[in-house]
Amino acid sequence: MEHSMSAQSSESLCHLNATDLVAGYRRGDFSPVEVLDAVLSRTERLNPRFNMFFHIAQESARQEALVSERRWKEGQPLGLLDGVPVSIKDSIAMKGAPMQVGSRALRKIVSAQDAPPAARLREAGAVLFAKTTMPDHGMFGSGVSTAFGVTRNPWNPAFNTGGSSSGAGAALAAGLGALSVGTDIAGSVRFPASLCGLASLKPTHGLVPHLPVVAVREAGPMARSARDLAAMLHVLAGTDKRDYGSFPALAAGVPGWREPKGLRVGLLLDVGYGNKAEPAVVAAVRNAAETLARAGAQVEEMSALLNVDVLVPLAQMSATTMLARFEAMSQEQRDLSYLPLLEFAERARRLTALDYQAAIQAVDVAKAEVVRATAAYDYVLAPVVNKVNWAAESNAPDDDDIYRLTSYCGMFNQTGQPVGCVCAGFDERGLPIGMQIIGQRFDDRGVMQLAEQYEALRGFDMQWPECQ
């Protein structure tokens, strides 16, 4: 395999999706080494401006690419992602790479082993080339971090990437790696997918093992197309004995491919609490619903999801978790911690044990109502966030109450339902607008199928930013 790509064609390799890369490897059009070199060269040019990565595993990635190239030459690839460059979120352990969870208060610890997502990718031959930036402790839906600074959106660097998988979103939009793994506890693979024009999946809880185990957090694939999500989920899913909550991967072919025709689709524009979506967001999601209706789906607009402000008890629970984390730190670490997060955690100090139990109960009641309200539909379409975007340096559109950013997303972590995100359009500034596709538990493949079908029907092709 000759390594003679021109500078222009080398740069174009960075914009190929994972499925296109694998097809090219199979034909012998280019090699994993050529692709990695192109990605590393583009990373060197763009990372200082957009701040996607805090660690580049250049030497180990090059070795992985060389071994992958040999497998392809011998006609013995390991799987669907052999030779595909993939980045990993800061909070996911990757052997030999540092982990800081976005906080300057925590020293960089070099991971001694791979967490399950990194392990599954490595076993499939993927080339793990970088760790992505994130906000402190993953507690903000933005790209602002005390450890790494501000991560900027390749569509327009004045705007936010969303978070907490902020570096992953920026990297994919900029053509730095075909795939990335994020994590999601209240929208953290969906916010950056929405703000950066990507596809992502928050899987059914337990389908993708992760450490440490958190009852409402999932590791999820992020990509430039819904088709790539399916290949990545196939690799990530399955039992890992280190995660006691993980279950076997869903059986191949279940469910079978379903066309939009006849699907029962709910259109959820009002969750009943938080800030309602602005007109541009509503218009994009409504237009997507109409697109699926023209393809034969039975679309019905839903009433408000809940009649209580569930963000209040959810915030109480999260604040309590963060307060306990800060109490375990030294005073020096607390002094280095992000002040808005410290202030958020301090809300929990005046809560009693009975208050905390009441918050848990209120969320449990809301979970049952969400499951009931969505049970009549195969899938539900909804906004990801109430705003198209906001300033790169801000934690949220409304800095006075950052938790309200999760209004459209958070409850589906609580119920464990799979949720895909796809780009549903752009506003007048050319900024992407994402849409959630919410499915029933264990129907992850169905969610991804509908996402892929919608991408084929939506009437526009993604013209990714050149980032000159």
TrEMBL record:
Belongs to the amidase family. It comes from Candidimonas nitroreducens. GO terms for molecular function: catalytic activity. InterPro entries: Amidase, Amidase_CS, Amidase_dom, AS_sf. It comes from the Bacteria. This is Amidase. Residues 34-447 form the Amidase domain. Pfam families: Amidase (PF01425).
